[in-house]
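Hi there,

I know you've been waiting on this one. I reran it after we fixed the sequence typo, so this is the corrected version. Both the input and the resulting structure follow.
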Amino acid sequence: MNDQQKTLLVIGGGAAGFFCAINVAKSDPSLKVIIVEKSNKLLSKVKVSGGGRCNVTHAFFEIDELSKRYPRGQHFLKKAFHWFNTKDTIQWFEERGVKLKAENDGRMFPVSNTSQTIVDCLLKEANKYRIEILLNCEIKEIGKENNLFQLQTADTRLLTSNYLCIACGGFPKSDQFNWLKQLGHSIETPVPSLFTFNIPNNTITQLMGVSVANALVKIIGTKLNESGAVLITHWGLSGPAILRLSAWGAKELSNKNYHFSVHVNWLEKHSENSLREEWILFRQQYGSQKISNKNPFELPNRLWNYLLQQSFIKEDTRWSDITSKQQNQLIKNLTGQEFHVKGKTTFKEEFVTCGGIKLNEIDVNTMQSKIIDNLFFAGEIIDVDGITGGFNFQNAWTTGWIAAKTIVEKSAQ
């Protein structure tokens, strides 16, 4: 580094790190920008997210609506989104030849339907603005001397910079934050967010692959409930409704050591009472038909037959021959089947940790540390996490952009 040239060092080669680095390098060509990544892969989460399509953001254009999708960091992001939000994300990518499309559920993907489009766009921009990238470079210790950051790497190199942006994602264990605690920052204890529910030794797992588009799931003994698609897997329950529940309940479920019970209403629009009232019509309408052949709820057949078995109803039983005991059991199973959850499985594509740098130590309008001048944070390293659906990437774009804007302004002073 020559004496005149100022340097920005970004720790983390993911979405937030690249977004910060690119926006700085574009706006201030005089700054030397370096991305440091501890693994040998760049943008790995971008690559695998959304089933390899990259769920870039979500089609919520009102800041109030958008910020309500973050179990942690809602109020913080409500302010941050005034600087950079969904509209800005769409425009940023479109200006670089990447058009995004919204699906029926609001999730936004590149029109190409492949995450490689987003990866290529970010790599092309980094190359265009001559951003230096150091792979397999883990930072072990950070100090500051004479207004310069001194970064000690695992292979004993010493890197220096005028500005430092930490965008290395979340960590699952508290002690992994030690190198940041040494800077004087406090950490909100990390716990997993976005995970699926394990239901060991339950016969429902034999239905793996079956999904219900509109179910309602409630965690017994809490106020937590979510509606939406539920997917049955070989270990238990997954799908958007479960993942949203895991995000909202991340801390509460961690406190329960992931042992809790859920009620699943497979017919979201029916309560137990409303179904009882309708049942008389079903019996009149389908009386002579076998119940296994006539499923009036558009449930997958495998699930319908499973629920009949769970209600002790034989497949060849006619609607008119169901006993009141069987009928009561079936109605209960349809609108409030109980499952005992023991453990979780991390949802590999959307792995997110709740916790991180405490938000009261970061200036939301600059993403700068309130403790150390010229130190910035972006992305999941801060105590912000969203539900599934593109919200965690939007946090990365927003916080990366704000940090970049501030670094450029400070560099010009």
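Quick highlight: The two ends are 20 Å apart (CA to CA).

Best,
R. S.
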